[in-house]
Design brief:
Blueprint lengths: L8 H29 L3 H12 L4 E3 H8 L3 H13 L3 E4 L7 E4 L1 H51 L6
Antiparallel strand pairs: 1-3, 2-3
Length: about 160
Amino acid sequence: MSRGPWLGDGEQKVWRSYLLMQRTLETHLERHLQREFGLSKSDFEILVNLSEAEHGRMRAFELSRATQWEKSRLSHHLTRMEKRGLVRKEACESRYPEIVITEEGLAAIKACAPAHAARVREFFVDVFGAERLAMLGEAADEVVETIGRHCDTDCPLTS
């Protein structure tokens, strides 16, 4: 692999293929969520995190960390989801309320999760196959770890 500041032709081709794959897959999955279940990708992400959390609740800062969303984006989106009855805010011992998945929110995630998982399997898991999927998982973990080290040491964006 080239070590200069510019990507070589092959590196550029792979990078652009990756970006196109990621956008295409994400857009396609989101269209199905929206059309079939009335959920956005953001709704789905919040509901997944809450449904997997102990007692279906998380503090807002935990949810922000899990989604990597900024505070204002999370706040605005939670307000919209609360109006639709998917989540509610509950006072707790902390200064800030906990975000709780409602019965309606739980029903929504249970309704869409099987179809979503089937599409992820069809368009991603089965395309890669077991061996390439394992290699991709390892590579993805390494990328995330590398970014984490960068943020912990000399990244001016994380203050």
